[in-house]
Design goal:
The protein contains eight helices and 13 strands. By secondary structure, it is α/β, with parallel strands linked by helices. The two termini are 20 Å apart. 31% of the residues are buried.
Length: 272
């Protein structure tokens, strides 16, 4: 099925939904779902509409653009059948990378087969197993050349333990997703789970976010936690932490690929 996804953000005002749905109805297109959110504090209106676009030559894109201008808003229209190109960057940890490839193979992640980049050779076998390109990289200049060569649209940092250069971050603004142990903010540096264990924490978790040039301060996409107690060992905590990191990363990537995220400044609206 060929669906169009409409995203609109604009100042909140009367009649937005009525105007949008009238345009879609008049063009003989069928609405499959509507999700909306009003940010009263900032007087902002967000909406995501999925349209069954079986008659693409009649899709009212220009009318929607004109309406967006009238509403002083910003509108985006995406084609669900158009798959984007994805690059996964990793260092040595294989679990989150395997998880993403398996989810893609099962059809849960709608994109072209991701390519894999790493600053170590240990991960090359994963690329071979999933019949995709592997690149051994040593610096950001090499990364940028590969991204351009492969026409990459989305970058996933799957426990990639190097700093991405500012020029790559700027070029891929809101298109680089990272994962980290976001519910251990006091335990920076090496062995955060060991530090948390010594402090006797009761929850551990993970945060997935878009990358900006301010380390770990980009718009948050997904967060989750797991409760622990005195009976959990460091090994248990590491296992649970990595498990929740994989889940949070997958949910964030899936939401991005399904165009369920609207970003306004440093805040995300993630529709179901």
């Amino acid at each position: 099925m060929n669906n169009k996804i409409i995203q609109l953000i604009c100042p909140d005002q009367k009649g937005i939904i009525a105007k949008l749905t009238s345009i879609i109805h008049d063009s003989n297109n069928n609405i499959l779902s509507i999700e909306q959110h009003v940010d009263n504090e900032n007087n902002s209106f967000y909406i995501r509409i999925v349209v069954d676009d079986n008659q693409s030559d009649q899709f009212p894109k220009q009318a929607l653009l004109d309406l967006s201008s009238q509403l002083n808003g910003k509108i985006n229209v995406f084609d669900s059948k158009k798959k984007i190109n994805v690059a996964i960057l990793g260092t040595k940890e294989s679990e989150p990378i395997y998880d993403l490839f398996i989810k893609h193979t099962s059809g849960s992640l709608c994109c072209n087969t991701p390519i894999l980049l790493s600053n170590h050779n240990e991960l090359s076998g994963i690329a071979k197993q999933f019949s995709t390109n592997f690149y051994k990289i040593s610096n950001n200049d090499e990364i940028l050349k590969i991204l351009k060569k492969e026409k990459i649209d989305l970058i996933i940092l799957a426990r990639y333990m190097q700093i991405i250069s500012e020029d790559i971050v700027s070029l891929y603004r809101n298109n680089i997703i990272n994962i980290h142990h976001g519910f251990l903010p006091a335990f920076k540096g090496a062995k955060p789970y060991h530090q948390a264990y010594k402090k006797g924490v009761k929850i551990i978790g993970a945060t997935s976010h878009y990358v900006t040039n301010k380390l770990d301060e980009g718009p948050i996409i997904t967060q989750d936690i797991v409760h622990i107690n005195h009976a959990h060992s460091v090994k248990d905590m590491i296992h649970l932490g990595r498990e929740i990191e994989r889940t949070v990363l997958y949910k964030s990537v899936k939401a991005h690929l399904e165009y369920r995220i609207i970003i306004n400044n440093n805040k995300t609206i993630v529709f179901k």
